[in-house]
Amino acid sequence: MRVFHPRAGRAALLRACAFALSAVVAVPAAPLLAAGLSAVPAQARSAPESFADLAESLLPGVVNISTSQTITSKSGPDVPVFPPGSPFEQFFKDFMDKNRPGQRGQPAPPRKMQSLGSGFIVDPSGIVITNNHVIDGADEITVTLHDGSTLKAKLIGRDDRTDIAVLKVNPDKPLHAVPFGDSDKARVGDWVLAIGNPFGLGGSVTAGIISARGRDISQGPYDNFIQTDAAINKGNSGGPLFNMAGEVIGINTAIYSPSGGSIGIGFSIPSNLARTVVAQLRDFGHARRGWLGVRIQQVTPDIAESVGLKEAGGAMVAGVNDGGPAEQAKIRNGDIILKFNGQDVKEMRTLPRIVAETEIGKEVPVVVWRDGHELVLQAKVGELPDDQKQADAKPEKPAPDKGIELSDLGMKLEAITPETRDKYQLTADQKGVLVTGVTNGTPAADKGLKPGDVIVEVQQEEVATPADVQKLVDKIRKTSRKSVLMLVQSGDGLRWVPLSLAPNERKPG
Fold first, then answer.
1. Which residue of the set 66, 115, 118, 133 is catalytic?
2. What's the CA dihedral at 11, 13, 14, 17 to 10 degrees?
3. Number of domains composing the chain
4. Within a domain: residue 339?
5. Is residue 39 domain-resident?
6. Catalytic residue from among 118, 183, 237, 500
7. Is 253 in the same domain as 168?
8. Range of the domain at 137
9. Of the residues 124, 181, 223, 469, which has the fewest C-beta atoms closer than 10 A?
10. Does 105 share its domain with 183?
11. pLDDT value of position 180
12. Higher pLDDT among residues 108 and 388, named by residue
């Protein structure tokens, strides 16, 4: 079980996001009618008197997974570090050598490490689903069925980006399989059952509700977890989360806890995501995901204002892969992707998941914001490569230009020359205009610009000289916009930076 310990700020956020269903309050109809509202009763399934019948029918489909891994030590525990000449230095060295397995200074013999997890059967022929982190690095995998019998398992495929693995066992007779359900139909407040093998005790059942949906816990680009308060502990990893129809709607994967035990904040991979990945692992041995070929960043209110977008939303393109689907679809740097294949891109993090779930080879509409209006482009979805290789770009030397100072923005600019290229360790193919100075308390300093950064575009137009930057800044200023948008290359990569064009009020510093 992956455990997330509290951190300042994040702990409060997750605590605030954990919901509990404690009571149903009856509201008199009269006040509602007086206010012109209809008194419509909420349709909700009441809590069952017992989960026993459901649990009895599901337990045979849940398995215990144990793994063993060979660990090779270098030479036993390390000696604590003490100042040279300290009497403790030689004492601890002698002690470690004396108690180290094998001969003095020789590597310790290999040892076996055991771990436990959970899984569930989705095909009577012996297909078992679990978390990738349960079996990662294992030399041997053993599946224990509900009746206590054990079977050796073979790894068919695994996907570390979604933390899913598919195993195959060879039983003497058909196994009890459990079906996938539709996780999109699961609602906050619905009853759920979690079944697994906490602490190696064997099949255990816990009940709770869905606390939240669409959780991002910063574990990968496709985070879309179901949050539940059904107790999930160590050893539950890879076990199923069931709805009241006995369908798997999630794979229990992680908990948030200050102690390592359940505090009612658990996370499950939605079944609709898992079902697709499982099918691909069974068919190909690896996950096949849709790929657009763009680097993106969040659209902030400043960026939205600078490009004339009413609300901050979508995913802003900060780079396009050469020869990728986006380049072929004429998607450009600075475009803001608002919709992909008919689905709204409300924020940056939703785009990778939508693209990944799209059928490879399918041509889909992409709605982008460009030059102050929406534009519909057609993109043919490619397959996400394992190792993205960038094509070599041809170096282009900008024409020599005189350095200038944009005092209202707070930065000095120069053309890139062989001397400055060496000084700031720029690549041979780096294009744009070099920032050589930034004044404290100015818009450039406020946005984190520093000497050595390179301005590649201004308001989505390429620049090669300081004069190009000055010209475009003056042009934007005449439109009464509050900020100018610049594409900046730094040591951390490309990013769009909105710089305020408001009258400069110099801050001390």
1. 133
2. 150
3. 4
4. yes
5. no
6. 237
7. yes
8. 1-14+51-72+110-285
9. 124
10. no
11. 96
12. 108
Paired tokens of 345:
């891109």
475 found inside a domain: yes
CA distances from 154 to 141, 150, 309 (A): 7, 13, 52
Helix (H) and strand (E) counts in the chain: 12, 29
DSSP 110: P
Give the mean model confidence (pLDDT) for residues 448-475.
89
Q: With 0-12 CB in 10 A as exposed, 13-18 as middle and 19+ as buried, what is 52?
A: exposed
78 is catalytic: no
Q: How far apart are CA 132 and CA 283, in angstroms?
A: 17
The helix/strand/coil state of 285 is: coil
**Which tokens is 358 given?**
């799209």
Active site residue 115: no
Whether 493 maps to a domain, the answer reads yes
- Distance of alpha carbon 165 from alpha carbon 274, whole angstroms: 10
- Give the model confidence (pLDDT) of 333-364 as tens digits: 899 999 999 999 988 888 988 998 898 999 99
Question: Could you tell me if 327 and 463 lie in one domain?
Answer: no
Neighbouring CB atoms inside 10 A of 97's CB total: 15
Q: What pTM value is reported for the model?
A: 0.60
- Is 286 a residue of the active site? no
Catalytic entry in 159, 163, 335, 453: 163
Structure tokens at 437: 């100075």
